[in-house]
Design goal:
three-stranded antiparallel beta sheet; 10 helices; Oxidized Rhodanese, domain 1
């Protein structure tokens, strides 16, 4: 006999979210939207997908309530429905890291080997920023930095880092951050900085997680 009670109906609605998350391309789209709002053309280029495919993914994310959009002139801009979407992705990563052997292997192979030092938690970084103990570097592209960044962070995109080392105060620890805990930009930045003799560490998470936790942010628009 089919179930049709309110609890089952709720579970069916919750399952829509699970279905929307069950695609690697859609998860990557959500990560990019966690940095700033984007048009479909920009997202397609960032994710290396066709515009048509990207548009289909966005429609599924919007139908699941994870993404919203509005029209500005001739452009339709997409953004996350709220910071709780970032928290959902963070939980997804944590559960996967704890319970999927394949995730553990990938993290060890691509991330732990690249930087086996413990990353700095958000609260600790905030305390150290308040006492001017560190220089915080946002290594994301300039557009993402302008849309929102950690208060006091300077923007040096990864591809400009080696040419702009003189902007970093000598003798002070540098903490780099990027799009999230598994974004390679901050790992590569830390590797380059250490090679140049800097005391460099990574932020444990990225800008979206920092913002979703209620930490201070600012924009440069």
């Amino acid at each position: 006999m089919p179930k049709s009670g309110p609890k089952q109906q709720l579970f069916e609605q919750f399952a829509r979210i699970g279905k929307a998350l069950s695609n690697a391309n859609r998860l990557e789209i959500l990560e990019f939207l966690g940095q700033r709002e984007c048009g479909v053309d920009e997202l397609a280029a960032l994710c290396r997908l066709s515009v048509a495919n990207t548009s289909q993914h966005l429609q599924q994310l919007r139908q699941a309530g994870l993404v919203t959009s509005d029209k500005r002139g001739q452009r339709v801009l997409y953004r996350l429905s709220g910071d709780d979407v970032v928290q959902l992705l963070l939980i997804l990563r944590r559960v996967g890291s704890s319970h999927l052997a394949e995730v553990k292997q990938l993290i060890h192979h691509y991330f732990t080997i690249k930087d086996d030092l413990e990353a700095i938690p958000a609260r600790e970084l905030l305390d150290r920023v308040k006492t001017a103990q560190v220089t915080v570097v946002d290594v994301r592209p300039a557009k993402e930095y302008r849309a929102g960044h950690l208060c006091g962070a300077i923007n040096i995109p990864l591809n400009e880092l080696e040419a702009r080392l003189a902007e970093l105060p000598p003798g002070q620890q540098v903490v780099a951050y990027c799009r999230g805990p598994h974004c390679m930009l901050s790992y590569d930045a830390v590797e380059k900085l250490r090679r140049e003799g800097y005391d460099a560490r990574r932020l444990e998470d990225g800008y979206p997680e920092w913002k979703a936790a209620g930490m201070p942010v600012e924009t440069a628009l």
